[in-house]
Amino acid sequence: MPIDPTGAIGSLGSHLPLLLAAGWLIRVPPLSREEGHEAITRHAWEGLRLTTDQQRALIRGVRAPDAGLVGFLVSALPFAQRRHALRAWSGTSTAAAIQDTRNFLMARHLRALALPEGRGRWATFGEVLHCLQDSYSTAHADRVGARIVRMKHWGPLDGLRPAGPGTVRADEHGFPADRRDSAWSSGELTAEAQAAVASSSRYLEMVLRQSRSGEAEKAVLRGFAEFLDEFMPE
Prior knowledge:
By secondary structure, the protein is mostly helical. The protein has one domain (33-158, 171-231). It is 48% helix and 6% strand. It has eight helices and four strands, in the order ααααααββββαα. Strands 1-2 form a two-stranded antiparallel sheet. Strands 3-4 form a two-stranded antiparallel sheet. β1 (141-144) and β2 (147-151) form a beta hairpin. The longest helix has 23 residues, at 191-213. Mean pLDDT is 86; it is low at 1-21.
């Protein structure tokens, strides 16, 4: 089916404030002044006594997967969709996508702990938070309680695929952006964003505990698997 380039440009223009967001919004003046991942992360660290450097590195890391044109373009590639709690391909099952996302989270968590204390380590923890937080956006996943019952896909062709006779087109993440990725409603964090805050806070508590105790890798793996079983069960 031919695509009207004028209409496509107009549609893209209407999404400019959200263009660099493939998850909860991030602040990108002058395109967007709304904070999503940043606000969720700041709420999550309340009372945890992180240093200023740790806080700054977390914010840098939680923004990194969405920030800039490169981040936006790379996010559409199949291998990168797990960074945003999305299915790699339109035909990927939710079960496979959850497993892929869990594997990504585990790998990044272990990578962060292997780094020396400093900005690189905490920025990598921020990448873990980004993915975890995205899994609570209704643009990315449908949850029933803690369980993800459907993980969605993000791509330019999703809206062009025919639904089929007598069927409804599958609900996928809007392209290039999705209004459901806003973390705010009437000046307050949405229920989904608040759930993302709660899980992010629990993750940071675990990070601090594991960092201070110097747990062996086997114990770290067990602890992180238990965390995922609670907040992203298979």
